[in-house]
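Reproducibility note. Readers wishing to regenerate the assembly model reported in the main text can use the exact inputs given here. Chain order matters: entities are listed in the order in which they were concatenated for prediction.
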Amino acid sequence: AQSVTQLDSQVPVFEEAPVELRCNYSSSVSVYLFWYVQYPNQGLQLLLKYLSGSTLVKGINGFEAEFNKSQTSFHLRKPSVHISDTAEYFCAVSALTGANNLFFGTGTRLTVIP
Amino acid sequence: EAQVTQNPRYLITVTGKKLTVTCSQNMNHEYMSWYRQDPGLGLRQIYYSMNVEVTDKGDVPEGYKVSRKEKRNFPLILESPSPNQTSLYFCASSLRNRGTEAFFGQGTRLTVV
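Running the prediction on these inputs yields the following structure tokens for the assembly.
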């Protein structure tokens, strides 16, 4: 079974400041890792994903994340946030074997303050 | 345009009155899934389908039914809704290959009174 922990339910940050959203996971099998973003009143869309290879992955809108196998973490970062980044961010995992199901964390609401 | 379409977007109903939330995708995806989103709980999977006529329970299937008679459609059925099913529901689809991107609908906000 897989589980995902997003320790920070809310993260306020000033515009143009850097931000890190934390994600830790637990799994008895190898997993793929994802970050999805949900803008107000919309569905989720993929920000980035880690399947294999380089542990630093870049996504849309200037976001990047680093996979750390020893710490079972996949933290999301952006060096300078914009007002338009205000949204809810979900970390998710899916197993390399079995059904292609996504297991989500509880989400982190990022609020960018002007 | 590639999309997942859910209807209705908003629904208020009474306890016990059967309802169906429709979901349709135009990307020829084999895999489809339903989630509910509740504050502080994130998204939890209700049911999923690997292909036509193949469905299976997710983490919170109680009180829900699904069917997959056609590849593009995956309706969610609440035979006897209860107030604890008040939630925001999302349908998603993807290719069956693991690690592929899931595409989500806009969501259906259901209130059961």
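We highlight two features of this model. Chain A has no helices and twelve strands. The radius of gyration of chain A is 14 Å.
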